[in-house]
Design brief:
This protein has helices at about 15-30, 45-60, 75-85, 100-105, 145-155, 165-170, 180-195, 220-230, 240-245, 255-280, 300-310, 355-360, 365-375, 400-410, 420-425; strands at about 40-45, 65-70, 90-95, 110-115, 130, 195-200, 205-210, 215-220, 280-285, 285-290, 325-330, 335, 340, 345-350, 380-385, 390-395. The protein is α/β, with parallel strands linked by helices and about 425 residues long. It has a six-stranded mixed sheet with strand order 9-10-11-14-16-15. The protein has a five-stranded parallel sheet with strand order 2-1-3-4-5, with helices on both faces. A three-stranded antiparallel sheet has the order 6-7-8.
Amino acid sequence: MRCWVNSMSSFSPEGLLSFKEQLVEAARRLSSYEPKWVKIIFHDDADGVTAASITYKAIQHLGLEAELICLEKAFPEALELIQAGEGGLILYVDIGSAHAELIARLNEDRNLTLILDHHDAVPSPSHLVLNLNPELHGVSGETYASGATVCYAFSKALGIADPQLAVLAVIGSTEVPGEPKGLNEEALRDAVNAGLAEVSESKAGVKITVLLGGEKVSRERWSTKLTVLSSVGYYSGGPRMAIDLCLGSPPSGVEEFIAKLEGDRKNVNQQLLSRVRSEGLKKDGSIQWLHVGDAFKGMGTKVIGTFLSYLSFQRRLIDRGMYLVGFMNMSPEIPGLGQLKRSYVKVSARAPDVLASLINDGSRPPLSTLLPEAAKAVGGFGDGHSVAASGIIPKGMEFVFIEKMNLLVGGGKPARSLSLFDFMSK
């Protein structure tokens, strides 16, 4: 039986120490750098928003102001625009590690670029593009870190001791299942010591409550609010509202706006669940899938992943041993940057519990390998974790993507393989 290497639970104390030493060195370089301008690029979920908020505050401590840009995925067209210019400072938070090579190529040694991430990573070939990721030090980014806790560790390396940043890091790490470990545990400890977080245990497990903006609620509730704003409200100014919430300046009417966004998403989710109950999922080889078309029109594309996560636990509606894949049409607009030149589809994938166990013991390939390779084979790109991943492919290539992914599951190789550099020339 073929065995796939899975780093989901890998941890090295020496690796964590090495990572922190790299953060200190990066902080030293940043502190001595005088940029003409600063950009912070962040992911459209609670982890990305809190990571950006932490980094924004850290940059302010250095006397700098930053432009904030929220990206759903690391589109090469968007990266090209972001890396344009010279003498700037660019910080990618909770996004970018898998694309360090492309970022370095586009940068052309013009700007100091820091990538603070916890997703699967590739080393950077450039001394001006620093890929700061625990994965590159033998520490699993999906178990012992989050984008926010990586950014919090970096703020501490800069000498910034702000307990409010620890609270944001605790909220950002909500997406990591189980009890906090590694960098996540360190941020929680700091927040608890500052009296801004409480930990209690029940039959359901560990419960973490945080105090932010005068509101004391579960970190899960904060995480949900920020993710709804930044993803469902991606095209409606939601990401900036989420940042303002984190920084203690809640926009007027934000709670009502969150409620509306949650209601809109819930209505679409219910419609899609009804469709799955009546029609079932399409099945092809090792994959069960659906295409929601324009059902989520007007919302950010993270909503398809959120829906799949929920669907993966509906045992009567899915095969728990098959890869679960979903597609949705996406808008060509990237707020703050402009329009994409081509039409694309967002693809998300999840591993239900039985399949996740097979992935964890190495008997099935992880989605962090499958989805990016299948996407690359049809002219797209992707990234993610072992049991949850997503990507972008050209519209009209959905069926071919399923074929390529099935081929990879069986141990084969796609006949056609494109890099992100090829993607840009399309």
